[in-house]
Amino acid sequence: MSYLVDAQLPPALAQWLREAGYNEACAVRELGLRDADDGEIWKEAHARGLTVITKDEDFAQRAQTGAPGPQIIWLRIGNTSNAALRAWLLPRIPQIAALLAQGCRVVEVR
User: pLDDT tens, 11-57?
Assistant: First the structure.
């Protein structure tokens, strides 16, 4: 799996994913997309085959319209520290990966 960490999440999340063995993880700013709108990020993620990790409901809504585009991991967690985000996300990764492998377009993570 290849991941694109959206702008409202810490870029350190992409680094952590790489360190955890997900070598194809990057933050939007690493692709020069830090100030890009959702549509541009959507197109770039789709073109590169990246799954978007986001807290932005707009991506989930766009994916549910059936429009061609990337898979979405929609994180439903409030503002938190990087360490708390990693601790919250880590035990959920196997289930997220399984749902994406089954072809789920949007994986909502609570």
Answer: 999 999 999 888 899 999 999 999 999 999 999 999 999 999 999 99
**Total structural domains within the chain:** 1
Task: Answer for the pair 100, 71: CB distance below 8 angstroms, yes or no.
Answer: yes
Convert the pLDDT of each residue in 92-102 to its tens digit: 999 999 999 99
Provide the residue range defining the domain that includes 31: 3-109
C-alpha 19: how far from its chain's center?
Answer: 16
d(C-alpha 103, C-alpha 90), whole Å: 21
Give the pair of three-digit tokens for residue 67. Answer: 């429009």
